[in-house]
Write a structure and sequence with these properties.
Structural class: alpha/beta
CATH topology: Rossmann fold
Shape: globular
Distance between the termini: 11 Å
Number of domains: 1
CATH superfamily: Response regulator
Order of helices and strands: EHEHEEHH
Strand content: 15-25%
Mean pLDDT: 94
Low-confidence stretches: none
Number of strands: 4
Protein backbone atom coordinates (compact mmCIF):
# COMPACT_ATOMS: atom_id res chain seq x y z
CA UNK A 1 0.00 0.00 0.00
CA UNK A 2 1.46 3.36 -1.05
CA UNK A 3 0.23 6.55 0.59
CA UNK A 4 1.27 10.20 0.45
CA UNK A 5 1.58 12.52 3.42
CA UNK A 6 2.38 16.21 3.80
CA UNK A 7 4.12 17.13 7.06
CA UNK A 8 3.65 20.80 7.86
CA UNK A 9 4.85 23.21 10.52
CA UNK A 10 5.41 26.93 10.80
CA UNK A 11 8.79 26.85 9.02
CA UNK A 12 8.41 23.67 6.98
CA UNK A 13 11.63 22.28 8.42
CA UNK A 14 12.09 21.95 12.17
CA UNK A 15 9.35 20.02 13.95
CA UNK A 16 7.94 18.50 10.77
CA UNK A 17 11.28 16.72 10.20
CA UNK A 18 11.16 15.04 13.62
CA UNK A 19 7.55 14.02 13.11
CA UNK A 20 8.15 12.79 9.55
CA UNK A 21 10.90 10.43 10.66
CA UNK A 22 8.73 8.82 13.34
CA UNK A 23 5.58 8.58 11.22
CA UNK A 24 7.34 7.16 8.15
CA UNK A 25 9.09 4.54 10.30
CA UNK A 26 5.81 3.57 12.01
CA UNK A 27 4.07 3.28 8.63
CA UNK A 28 6.88 1.11 7.28
CA UNK A 29 6.60 -1.16 10.33
CA UNK A 30 2.87 -1.50 9.58
CA UNK A 31 3.25 -2.34 5.89
CA UNK A 32 2.45 1.09 4.47
CA UNK A 33 4.86 2.59 1.94
CA UNK A 34 4.87 6.37 2.30
CA UNK A 35 5.95 9.15 0.01
CA UNK A 36 6.02 12.50 1.72
CA UNK A 37 6.90 16.13 1.48
CA UNK A 38 7.34 18.90 3.99
CA UNK A 39 5.55 22.22 3.78
CA UNK A 40 4.60 25.28 5.75
CA UNK A 41 1.07 25.53 7.15
CA UNK A 42 0.15 28.26 4.66
CA UNK A 43 0.76 25.91 1.73
CA UNK A 44 -1.86 23.36 2.82
CA UNK A 45 -4.83 24.89 0.94
CA UNK A 46 -2.94 24.55 -2.36
CA UNK A 47 -2.12 20.90 -1.53
CA UNK A 48 -5.65 19.98 -0.41
CA UNK A 49 -6.99 16.83 -2.11
CA UNK A 50 -3.57 15.98 -3.59
CA UNK A 51 -2.38 13.68 -0.77
CA UNK A 52 -3.83 11.12 1.63
CA UNK A 53 -3.05 12.91 4.91
CA UNK A 54 -1.80 16.15 6.43
CA UNK A 55 0.26 15.82 9.62
CA UNK A 56 0.79 19.21 11.25
CA UNK A 57 2.59 20.61 14.27
CA UNK A 58 0.87 24.00 14.29
CA UNK A 59 -2.74 25.15 14.46
CA UNK A 60 -4.57 25.09 11.12
CA UNK A 61 -7.42 27.59 10.80
CA UNK A 62 -8.31 26.84 7.17
CA UNK A 63 -11.07 24.34 6.39
CA UNK A 64 -9.55 21.46 4.39
CA UNK A 65 -11.03 18.27 2.96
CA UNK A 66 -7.86 16.17 3.27
CA UNK A 67 -7.75 14.30 6.62
CA UNK A 68 -5.54 16.16 9.10
CA UNK A 69 -3.95 15.21 12.41
CA UNK A 70 -2.06 17.40 14.86
CA UNK A 71 1.26 15.74 15.67
CA UNK A 72 1.89 17.53 18.96
CA UNK A 73 1.78 14.17 20.83
CA UNK A 74 4.79 13.02 18.80
CA UNK A 75 6.71 16.15 19.82
CA UNK A 76 5.77 15.88 23.50
CA UNK A 77 5.75 12.08 23.73
CA UNK A 78 2.37 12.20 25.50
CA UNK A 79 -0.11 10.13 23.50
CA UNK A 80 2.42 9.38 20.77
CA UNK A 81 1.55 5.69 20.33
CA UNK A 82 -2.16 6.42 20.10
CA UNK A 83 -1.59 9.09 17.47
CA UNK A 84 0.71 6.85 15.41
CA UNK A 85 -1.97 4.15 15.46
CA UNK A 86 -4.62 6.71 14.43
CA UNK A 87 -2.43 7.69 11.46
CA UNK A 88 -2.26 4.03 10.40
CA UNK A 89 -6.07 3.77 10.65
CA UNK A 90 -6.56 6.90 8.56
CA UNK A 91 -4.17 5.71 5.87
CA UNK A 92 -5.77 2.28 5.67
CA UNK A 93 -9.15 3.99 5.34
Amino acid sequence: MKKSIVFACSSGIATSTVVAEKVVEHCKNNGIDVTYQQAIIGELPSLDNSVDLFVVTSQVETKLTTPLVNALPIITGIGEDELLDKIIELLRG
